[in-house]
Design a protein that fits this description.
Number of domains: 2
CATH class of the largest domain: Mainly Alpha
CATH architecture of the largest domain: Up-down Bundle
Helix content: 40-55%
Radius of gyration: 17 Å
CATH topology of the largest domain: Glutathione S-transferase Yfyf (Class Pi), Chain A, domain 2
Largest sheet: 4 strands, mixed
Number of strands: 4
Number of helices: 8
Shape: globular
Order of helices and strands: EHEHEEHHHHHH
Strand order of the largest sheet: 2-1-3-4
Length: about 210
């Protein structure tokens, strides 16, 4: 049985849980993080010295970083549909997964923390507007990609890139701010509803 440590409302924990649902893997979730057991506890720090969720534990071995966990699970269960075996096809999926972490996340962080989390450290209106504009610009990049493929992020097939970016899109749609109309993104997001775990771990009312 896989253990997934992290609060179930965390966007990064939900990546892992959604991947497990697609793979039909039984999981034992353990709530850690804000409102639950502290990630600063020695027990947790021994698994992830960064004190961040999620952490996957399998056969006594701990793995952290959400996108890495998703890649591990797909490879472990030989799901080349989610993470292709061909180096170039795999790189196309991983490219968008890395973009989600490095570019898209950095764009939305201030706006989301201010508008949704109402963090006292993220209430500067100009900074919120700048972040929201950057977020929309990055979502327009995703729009152009989806208009090209006409299906999923990395091509004609549903992959791990769709899981991680589907959760980012859910957050974008849930944040109270002005957004451009992106028809390819809207059609793709509806298409994601055909896949196991979408309703429970992505489109579940949690931003």
């Amino acid at each position: 049985m896989l253990r997934v440590l992290g609060k179930p409302t965390s966007i990064n924990v939900r990546k892992v849980l959604w991947t497990c649902a697609v793979l039909d893997l039984p999981v034992t979730p353990e709530p850690w993080g804000s409102g639950h057991q502290s990630c600063g506890e020695p027990e947790f720090m021994a698994l992830n010295p960064n004190a961040m969720v999620p952490v996957l534990v399998e056969d006594g071995v701990a793995l952290w970083e959400s996108n890495t966990i998703c890649r591990y699970l797909a490879a472990r269960h030989q799901r080349s549909d989610l993470l292709p075996a061909s180096p170039m096809a795999r790189a196309q999926v991983e490219k968008w997964m890395d973009w989600q972490i490095a570019e898209l996340n950095n764009a939305w962080r201030y706006a989301f923390m201010g508008l949704v989390r109402e963090s006292p450290l993220h209430l500067d209106r100009a900074a919120i507007d700048t972040s929201a504009a950057a977020w929309n610009r990055h979502m327009a990049i995703l729009e152009r990609q989806l208009a090209i493929t006409g299906a999923y992020v990395a091509g004609q097939d549903f992959t791990l890139a769709d899981i991680v970016l589907g959760l980012s899109t859910n957050r974008w749609l849930s944040t109270p701010m002005a957004r451009p109309t992106l028809p390819a993104v809207a059609a793709w997001y509806q298409r994601l509803g055909q896949h196991a775990g979408f309703a429970e771990h992505c489109d579940n009312g949690v931003p």
